[in-house]
Amino acid sequence: MPETPHTPQAPGSPPAPRRPAGELEAGVLAALWAAAGPLSPAEVQGALGGRLARTTVTTILTRLHGKGAVTRTRAGRGYAYSPIQDSAGLTARRMRSELDKQDDRGTALARFVSQLTSEDEQLLRSLLDEADGRRESGSEAAADGGDGAAR
């Protein structure tokens, strides 16, 4: 279990509320995305304002590495971490991963689409039309030898 900063509490006071799932990972990723290059756990800790113990930051980075969300390179005796993708790329990867877990992809996609706002649905239609256009022009290029000349 990851270490969390300990704030002494008065006897009989209610426990501090738990953080929402993924909040720490999101904060660490935000720090990495804002950086100009790879960061050590201590640098990530500093970017987060020192609110978390360095060991907690290291644990989060190790878990993100295990999930394939960050890369790490040797830096002295430890590692420096970089995000693999930007926020949108990571979200897309997570969506794809969840879809890959489904036995009935059609039902999962249908339910996803049914929950979209009309604006998001229109955006999705536009993106799918764009993708179809790229596929069609790619197949036409392959059919004509790739140089645009009919054979």
Could you write a compact summary of the structure shown?
The protein has 151 residues and is mainly alpha-helical. It has helices spanning 23-34, 41-47, 54-66, 87-100, 105-114, 118-143; strands at residues 70-75, 78-83. The relative contact order is 0.08.
Describe the structure.
A two-stranded antiparallel sheet has the order 1-2. Helix 2 (41-47) crosses helix 3 (54-66). The termini are far apart. The longest helix is centred in the last third of the chain and has 26 residues, at 118-143. It is mainly alpha-helical and 151 residues long. It has 6 helices and 2 strands, in the order αααββααα. The chain is extended, with a radius of gyration of 22 Å.
Count of strand segments: 2
Largest sheet: 2 strands, antiparallel
Estimate percent helicity: 40-55%
Structural class: mainly alpha
Number of alpha- plus pi-helical segments: 6
Mean pLDDT: 85
Gyration radius, rounded: 22 Å
Shape: extended
| Termini separation | 65 Å
User: Strands of the biggest beta sheet: in what spatial order?
Assistant: 1-2
Low-confidence stretches: 1-7
Helix-strand sequence: HHHEEHHH
Strand % is: 5-15%
Oligomer: single chain
